[in-house]
Amino acid sequence: MDFPQLANTLYLDNAGSLPVPSPIVLNHTKDLLENIYGNTHSGSLKTSSAIQQTRTRILKHFNTDENYYTIVFTSGATAALKLLAETYNWNSKSYYYQKESHTSVVGISNIVSQTKNMPVEKCCFALEEERIKDLSTKKGMVAVTAQCNFSGKRFDMGWIANEQSKVHVLVDAASFCSTSTFDLQKYPADFLVVSFYKMFGFPTGIGALLIKNTAADMLSKSYFGGGTVQSIGVEPLYYSQKTRLYEKMEDG
Ligand SMILES: Cc1ncc(COP(=O)(O)O)c(C=O)c1O
Hints:
Elements: H1 22-34, H2 45-61, E1 69-74, H3 77-87, E2 94-98, H4 103-106, H5 108-116, H6 120-123, E3 124-127, H7 129-132, E4 140-145, E5 168-172, E6 191-195, H8 196-200, E7 207-212, E8 229-234, E9 237-241, H9 245-249
Parallel strand pairs: 2-3, 2-4, 4-5, 5-6
Antiparallel strand pairs: 1-7, 6-7, 8-9
The structure holds pyridoxal-5'-phosphate.
Pyridoxal-5'-phosphate (PLP) binds next to helix 3.
GO molecular function: molybdenum cofactor sulfurtransferase activity
Organism: Boothiomyces macroporosus
Domain Aminotransferase class V: 11-244
């Protein structure tokens, strides 16, 4: 039985998180006990190749590949949204988000307002679903939710295909992906956030920000730490960051 903890129990929260499946826990534990994985940033061949394979498989799952998208691992969908908000170039741009958004999407407005040093109501706008589709001439980012985590309602993503659009499209697919697959070829969002514990139930603490490669030049990051650093000196302060997008974004 994959879910022994569900014996004699009715579980109604699959959109929030899948219960922990025993085969994943058992295989994961076996793998850790039988193999030696070095630190992710220390050049361990086994670790690097496992991570590379995982990146490729995840992109395939979303019907794309590394020619079009880059995957940045984070600790969850919220961390992915925060990372995006902190690195996006908000200069002369606004933030639009769907009214039925998760708190983590709404929270971006504080970062935008502080970065632009502007009252939130002048640069961040909560909109009804119908208005979201008409923003293609606006400069900035529009955040939509593929599935509302509160009502379970799914929203039309068909309009995302518009390549002429000026506005960058962020899709929060955290809840949607727990029971469906988001197709990035069909709906080529500029940014997509997901949370893997909602898809697999175990382990927690891992999610991702998927970045369309053509939107990557909108992001720049000032913090550096751990594996993102290529070289460093402290007197005088000098550092260089690694060059690949995911290497720059995945601190620690
Ligand atoms: C639609 C949606 N977005 C974002 C999140 C936040 O995900 P995480 O727990 O990975 O930060 C959730 C979690 O329930 C969600 O349902």
